[in-house]
């Protein structure tokens, strides 16, 4: 049988869980990318994503996409998926593991702002 003391704790636990969930959802919404900040964070991307027709050959041969002009949210979510292991590529996973959510959002905004007429960034 459940005691009255245990029953009185249940509403408190439910409220606490709701507050934690609401706080984490609000925190996720707070991450806003900044293209100017991303400008200095893309140095890890330059080795592959800035070379036209580049193919990486470890562990398999991959055609590396040019990501300038890609949707910012897509880039950030792709990086998050590499970090979580949902996308499989060892180099991308290790790079994404070093990035914070803010870094991913900034990199996404940086690449989303790129056009054919964007000035060349030696770090990209």
Automatic annotation (TrEMBL):
Record-annotated Cytochrome c domain positions: 28-115
Protein name: Cytochrome c
N-terminal signal peptide: 1-28
UniProt xrefs under InterPro entries: Cyt_c-like_dom, Cyt_c-like_dom_sf, Cytochrome_c_Oxidase_Subunit
Superkingdom of origin organism: Bacteria
Keyword Signal tagged: yes
Keywords annotated in UniProt: Electron transport, Heme, Iron, Metal-binding, Signal, Transport
Entries under PROSITE patterns matching the protein: CYTC (PS51007)
């Amino acid at each position: 049988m459940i005691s009255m003391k245990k029953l009185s704790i249940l509403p408190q636990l439910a409220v606490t869980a709701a507050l934690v969930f609401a706080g984490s959802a609000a925190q996720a919404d707070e991450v806003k990318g900044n293209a100017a900040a991303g400008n200095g964070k893309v140095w890890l991307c330059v080795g592959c994503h800035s070379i036209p027709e580049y193919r990486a050959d470890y562990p398999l041969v991959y055609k590396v996409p040019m990501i300038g002009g890609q949707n910012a949210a897509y880039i950030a979510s792709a990086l998050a998926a590499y970090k979580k292991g949902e996308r499989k590529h060892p180099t991308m996973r290790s790079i994404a593991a070093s990035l914070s959510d803010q870094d991913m959002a900034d990199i996404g905004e940086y690449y989303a702002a790129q056009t054919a007429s964007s000035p060349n960034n030696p770090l990209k």
